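Human: We require from you a standard protein entry with sequence in single-letter code and fold as tokens, and nothing else.

Assistant:
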Amino acid sequence: MSKEYLGILPLPAHIGKMAPSIKITYITSPKLFPDVALTADLTVRATRTYEDDDVAPGNLDIVVVPGTEPGDEFEEDAKRWLRDQFNSDGVDVLCVCTGVFLCGAAGILDGKSVSGPRGLQDDLRKKYPNVKFVGEKYRWIQDGNLWTSGGITNGNDMMVAYAYANSRYWPKPVVSMGAMLTDVGDRPQLYDQGQHKFFLTIAWHIAQAWFLSLMPSKKNQGKKD
């Protein structure tokens, strides 16, 4: 939903002009800089570390915290940087999926209503007892300048909701156009399936996979003469 993106599409010129110019900075720790290895053999080239002055607390408008490994240990300096960003006037923190573990470790979830992945709600409550986790019901939720989402693609729904809620950055027609073109943001904030049914469905898929694992694999069967 940026001027840079919408401006290259075959849209009326005034749509692109209304969209904000957005600069995205990829920030990591000095130890990991510049190439950050992800899953699926993907590598992200970071453009800054949290020690750089231009990304110091107060110099950013929005901080997006992506998903991490739930068992990751986070550097104290990284947690302090995120905490200081969160406590800076005018800065919003948007947390997607398991990024909730970094936010929790930084102490910015305490006393807040937080979403987080549906399947990890009990684990999250044990790890962060001072947080009100509502991820059984909500794809995403806002509490002050903190926005949190459930697993992965729920972050897309949260981003659209955030854009609608922040007309100082995005005029409503720009958000609507961006959401339509990318086909996101049309799911309700509340899940249409309760937590018990959610886990029963997971159990059913696990059972199906177990039965299939007992059957001979077709790819291991040779051709018959």
